[in-house]
Amino acid sequence: MQNSFSTKARCRSAAYKAASSSSSGVLQPLHVLRDFWKEEGVSPIDNRGDTILHFLAVSGNVAGFDILEPNLSVKDLETRNNSGDTPLHEAARFGKKDMVERILRVEKDLVYMQNNLGETPLYVAAASGEKDVFTILANCDFSKLTMKRNDGKTILHATIFHDCYELAIDIVNLYPELVNDRYNDCMTALDMLATKRLSFRSGSNYLFAEIGKTPSVPVQMIETIIYSCIPPRYKESKLSDNQTQAGTKVVCVERLSFTKSLLGNSWLQAIDEAKQKHILALILAKMLLEKYDWSYSSTDHIVSNPLIQASKHKIDELVVEILQKYPEVVETLDEKKRNILHIAAEHKNRFLFDYLLKKVASQNRMLADIDENGNTILHYAANVGTPFFTSTTEHIESVWCVMSVLMMMWGVLWFKYIKYNMHPRLWDVKNSEGLKAEEIFEKNHLHVRKEAETAVRNLSNSTLVLSTLLCTINFAAIFTVPGGFEERTGLPILLDKVQQELWMLMFYLGAALFSSVFTMGTLLSFLLCKFYSNDFYISLPIKIIIAIISIFYATAFTIVACLQALNLENIFLNKDVWWLIIAVVAVGFIMTLIYVDLTFPVFDYMYYLVSYSFFVSYKRGHM
């Protein structure tokens, strides 16, 4: 009996290997399959309930299927695994075009079979982005019901959910009636697309306005420039008038062989794929907007729509497309009766807020709107966060070090920017809890302000040690110049020989000494600061900028003075030290990149501080 079980197990293993093999020219495994089929048929061979036909479909083993086809019945091909998938489902999921054609040759009605989730093979192919298989299956006469699964999600929802936008565009052209179908009675395809932030450029790192979002600013700058230089692989094209489908299709642009080889690099390929996905997502969004039903019933006073979704997920280009085509939907409120200006203020979305102030006709009304809890836009501007990383009062316990300083700086700047764009009458409005916007700001930022104070004091103490050390080194170096001093006159010995080079050395040492002393004074002012919220608006950022610049010059002039001292000693001329020059240049370049990476957020803040303070004319509504 035991030998019988072991023999059957060996046969099952051999049949599994033969079915899972994609090679079609090996005769022996095919005989194994045929023999196993005669003995076991459609009996499951794993704990998922898969039969030998499921594994043939997954691997696309057409030769194995052909050898079994004379003995196959329609009932065999209708066999389901534990998930309710037939072999046709598996072939469609993994894009096995030839296998799909073989199965349909036996029985075409298999395309209507549904698995446990109610998914047909057409739905599975759409969700997997298998365009060729989808095209084959789409030739069958599908009804609207067979293009949905049990929860109401259509094939269009499935392609968008899995980022298969090229196929989604084809589906919109083939089945335009699916555009307004709602998943779970709430989300259309456009609503779902409006939640896919990473599918648009505004949600990526490849945007110049988002520089500083990633840990490495220099790398992000390089990637953003590369992104802008990569040519698009897709473009929109209008279908001819004599066609009955929708009016837009996607055309692939042929690339030069040099471009293809260059973008074959894995790093550049990732950037290229991201850009093409952003292009396709925007094309799809425009197509869905053309057919989207914006009508409201008289009872729908609050309707969740793509504009609200796109605003919450900071998909700026989708918001712009919606408002350009349907400007009236800017009046839409969300479930809390907030308009999109409330949302932009809450998330510190600089682009969207400025765009709405410039382009929307009813900006004064939107600025004056109050939500169901009595909160104005200024109340939402009191939220903790930065334009790059939005936080809330529920997450500020994890804020620490430099991030807390940036959050305080941006918090104060954004709050004042929103405040002076509103009518003064709204500044002191209390919400349903009896709190003014400034009171909420202080409450939300209390923990962050304390963390920022601790961070600034700790950093200033550490930097003070460095500046004191540089000051001591340069002060001592001034009185120990190369060559020494003459005993009779007290002047440097090299003064008559290399006067210009010596004066350059003294200049570098003096500049380094002055910069280090200036840094010490600036850092001491941090220790005397009271760290009120308003201090983070102008006073502290300017002091931080001064400290950053002065410590940079102190370090740079100290290094240059060291090199000049080596030059006076003729180190570079009399010895073969070319490697030292290369090493100094390389280290200097790397340290500069690190310095830029560390200090960029502060300079970025200063740019917007100056921009908002001096180059923005505030227009307060008259009420």
Automatic annotation (TrEMBL):
Keywords: ANK repeat, Membrane, Transmembrane, Transmembrane helix. Pfam families: Ank_2, PGG. ANK repeats lie at residues 83-115. One of its GO terms (cellular component) is membrane. The chain crosses the membrane at residues 397-415, 464-485, 505-532, 544-566, 578-596. Residues 456-561 form the PGG domain. InterPro entries: Ankyrin_rpt (IPR002110), Ankyrin_rpt-contain_sf (IPR036770), PGG_dom (IPR026961). This is PGG domain-containing protein. It comes from Solanum verrucosum. The lineage of its organism: Eukaryota, Viridiplantae, Streptophyta, Embryophyta, Tracheophyta.
